[in-house]
Amino acid sequence: AMAYDRYVAICHPLHYEMVMNWKACTEIIILVWVSGLICGILHTIGTFSVLFCSNVVNQFFCEIPQLIKLSCSGFNLVEVGIVMVNIIAALGCFTFIFISYAVIFKTV
Questions:
Q1: How many domains does the chain have?
Q2: Do the record's keywords include Transmembrane (predicted)?
């Protein structure tokens, strides 16, 4: 969201008010919240669909990778799915930020 805001502010300064209006900002916020909700739901479903061999976590924080290590199965499809979702989300964000800053540098 910040990369797009800066892109519009630098590359299209006269159109900034028209492009970054209340509706556009609301849509960006909704998109961020929905994508976070989807990732959270995928993590939750993946974690609760696994059978666990133990209930002792040897850390203060009970995080997803530590819970996956407690599963009874050796190769876990849930772990691969979680990693893939995170990679896709990170690459999507990085690509969008990189492209917007490349256009900004080209403009400046």
A1: 1
A2: yes
